[in-house]
Amino acid sequence: MSVFVDYLIIFWGFFMIAIMAIGGYFMFRKFLKRLPKKDGKSTMDWETYYVNITKHMWDEEEKQLLEELVSPVPELFRDVARHKIVGKVGEVALAKSKQKITQDVLIEGYIIATPKRDHKFLRKKLAEKEIDTAPYEPFFQQSNNDYNSDWKRKHQL
């Protein structure tokens, strides 16, 4: 019986170390997003800025489409994903000097804001909504890292 208890204690120790490492990883990622960049604002500050400045540009139809597009995201992470996507959509709209958020701007911003592994869910949702993905193929072909620094210059229409 004591051998079983010994193994249980060892397993529990490794389990706790693994759980703390996973939690620490996500906390560290959040910490890195909060660090100010060269311009004095963090990534999260810019997201919040674009969300707030473009709040009035959203129509009900685009809000509903956004909700449908983020529906595959687990509910625990959905608010964070939605905030990131809305921030990037707002940034795209302002870069293109749009007066309101359109379906095209929403989809383009969604593609830019999400990692490549999530694009299959977006394609599936767009197919369900009978929205043609052909105009967005150049965005789908690039990785998320390709957008980071100068996506505005590369994709401005």
From TrEMBL:
InterPro entries: YneK. It comes from the Bacteria. The chain crosses the membrane at residues 6-28. Keywords: Membrane, Transmembrane, Transmembrane helix. This is DUF2621 domain-containing protein. It comes from Virgibacillus chiguensis.
